[in-house]
Amino acid sequence: MRKPKDISENELQNIWMKQSFTSTLKTQAGDIVSVLSHGDRNVSASGPDFKNARLRIGNLVYVGDVEIDSDYNNWKSHGHNIDSKYNKVILHVSLTNKNNHHYIYTKDGRKVPTLTIERFVKRSLFDKANTEIQIKNDNQKTFIRCASMSDVVEVAEKKRFIAKLGVARFSKKCDRIYKRLKELSYIFEFRINEPTIKYSMHPEFAKKEFSSKDFKNKNLWQQLLYELLFEALGYSQNKEIMKKLAQSINVNFINGNISNSNSIEMESLFFNVSGMMPEVKNLPKEEVSEYTNKLATEWEPLSKKYDGERFSETDWHFFRIRPQNFPTIRIMGGIQYLELILNRNLIGIIIKKIEEIRKISVLINSIRSLLIIKSHGFWKKHYIFDQPAKNEIKYFIGFSRADEIMVNIILPFFMVYFNVFGKKELSKKILQIYNVYEQRDDNKITREVSSNLGVLNLQKNTIYAQGMIELYRNYCSKNKCLECEIGKVVFN
What is the pLDDT of residues 368-412, one digit of tens each? Predict the structure, then answer.
C-alpha cells in the first residue's frame, strides 16, 4: 500500500471527480461541505483544476473553482497565492495538511477554506487509482501501436508515405491561410469594423467567387501575416489570445494612430490592450520603472482613440512556461515583426529574395535571418514588468522559433500569395524550399515516431517531420491503423 506522499495530483483529481468519500466532508475549520457539482475539469496547463464547481460550505452555496494539491503547502510553493487565475477558487483541497491550516489566501486577499481528504478516502481507492494509472502507462510504453512490427514495411515505402503526409499537412496550412484571406477581403470590402469575426458570415460570402482583384489591397496581406505571426508566437497555450490581440489592434488602427518612429507608443498600445500593464497609479513610485511610467503616459491619449476589445492579465498563461516564452517577450517579438511588416516592407523584401536568389540554401538562410529578432531595451533584462531577470535575454525570437515560423507561416503564406497572383514558378520554388528545408530542433512527436518507425535520419528534414506529425495526430493517436498505409501492411 502506498503512502499519501506517493499519490499524484492527477489521481487526486480523479478521486474528486468520482466523489468516492467514506463520510461527510468537512473543512479544516469544521464546516460541512456538500458537493452539488464537482465542476468541469480544467484541461489547460494553467489555472485551477476544476472550474464552475457548485458547493455548499456551511450554510452558504458557492459557485467557483476548486484547486487540488498533494499537500497544503503546494498552494504557495506553486505560486497560486500570487496568480490572478486562482482568484475565483472557493475551496482548496489537499491530501495532507501537516499543520492543520484552516485557510489559504488568494492574490486578491480573499480567505478560502481548505479541505484535507486523507481521512475521507479508503486506502484501497488509492491502490485502485494506482493500478489504473499503471495499466495506462503500460499501454503507452510504445508511442505508436505498430512500433514493434513496423520493420515489415520497407524503409522506402515508409519515406514515401510520410513525405506524402508532409505535403498534405502543408496543403492544409495553405488552405487555412487562404480561408482567412477571403474573410479579411470580405471584411475590408464591406468595411466591417469589428476586428474579430464574431458572427456567422453572410450567406453571400459562401457563394462569392474570389479573384486576384479581390486581394490587391496591401493592408489585407499585412493584416494576414501579422495575425499569423502573432498566433505562432503564442505557442499552444497563448496562441488564441495572441491571435485575438492582433485582430483587435488591426493595421488600420496602427497606421492611423501610431507614429512610424515611436516604438514606445506601439509597446504601450500592446501591453495596455493585452491587460498586462501594471496599475501604475496604485503602486508606490519606487516600485515602478521609468519604462513602465512611459508606457502609462503614452496610453492616456491612445486610450481615447482605441475602441477595440481589451483583455485581462488572467487571459494569459504563464504557468509551466519557460520565461523565454512568456507572453511579454513574445509580444515584444511580435511588435518587431509588425514594424518590419508596416515600416520596412517585409513582404516585399521576401518576395524580392524569392524572385532573385537562385540557390535554395542561400535563399533559406537569407529569409530566416529576417525572422531572428535580437532583444533590446527594457525587455533585454526583464521577463515581466519591473522584476529584473537573473540572466540577460539575448533574443525575442531565436533560431529555433524562426525555423518554426519559416515552416508554419512564411512558406504557406507566400505559397498562397503566389498562387493568388498566378506566379507558378515562384510557387514551385516555395515547394522546393519546403522539400529540402532542415530544422535545427525536433520535438517529442518527431523523435518518437522516427524512432518507432526506424527512420531516425529523417526527423529534422521538414517535409518528413511534418509528415510524422500528421501521421501521429490523424492516424496513430486516433487508432486509424487500417487507414494508414503503414498500418495496412503491418496489421494485415
Answer: 999 999 999 999 999 999 889 989 999 999 999 999 999 999 999
Q: Cell 511534418 sits at which residue?
A: 466
User: What percent of the chain is predicted at pLDDT more than 70?
Assistant: 90
pLDDT at 202: 57
Q: Which amino acid is at 40?
A: D
CB 88 within 8 A of CB 64: yes
Instruction: Report d(CA 80, CA 168) in Å as an integer.
Output: 43
The SS3 of residue 403 is: helix
As a whole number of angstroms, the distance between CA 211 and CA 220 comes to: 14
Query: Using one digit for the tens of pLDDT, what is the confidence trace for 291-348?
Result: 999 999 999 999 999 999 999 988 898 877 888 899 999 999 999 999 999 999 999 9
Please, are residues 228 and 262 in contact by the beta-carbon 8 Å criterion? no
Question: What is the residue-averaged pLDDT of the chain?
Answer: 89
Task: Report the pLDDT value the prediction gives residue 461, as an integer from 0 to 100.
Answer: 95
Helix, strand, coil proportions of the chain in percent (round to 5)?
60, 10, 30
In the three-class reduction of DSSP (H, G, I as helix; E, B as strand; rest coil), residue 43 is classed as coil
Pairing mode, strands 25-26 and 32-37: antiparallel
CB atoms within 10 A of CB 447: 15
Q: Using CA atoms, how far apart are residues 420 and 80, in angstroms rounded to an integer?
A: 49
- State residue 416's pLDDT score: 98
In this prediction, residues 85-100 reach a mean pLDDT of 92
pLDDT given for residue 142 in this prediction: 61
Cα 372 from chain centroid (whole Å)? 20
All three cell numbers of 19: 466523489
Q: Is 53 left (phi over 0), alpha (psi -120 to 50) or beta?
A: beta
Q: Is 165 exposed, middle or buried (0-12, 13-18, 19+ CB in 10 A)?
A: buried
Helix (H, G, I), strand (E, B) or coil at 53: strand
Would you tell me how many other CB atoms lie within 10 Å of the CB of residue 251?
A: 21
Cell of 153: 514495411
**Using CA atoms, how far apart are residues 398 and 151, in angstroms rounded to an integer?**
37
Q: Tell me the CA distances in angstroms from 229 to 74, 296, 410, one per residue in order.
A: 36, 26, 9
HSE at residue 204, side-chain half, CA atoms within 13 A, is 4
Question: Left if phi > 0, otherwise alpha if psi is -120 to 50, otherwise beta: which for 204?
Answer: alpha
The grid coordinates listed for 268 are: 504601450
Gap between the Cα atoms of 75 and 95, Å rounded:
12
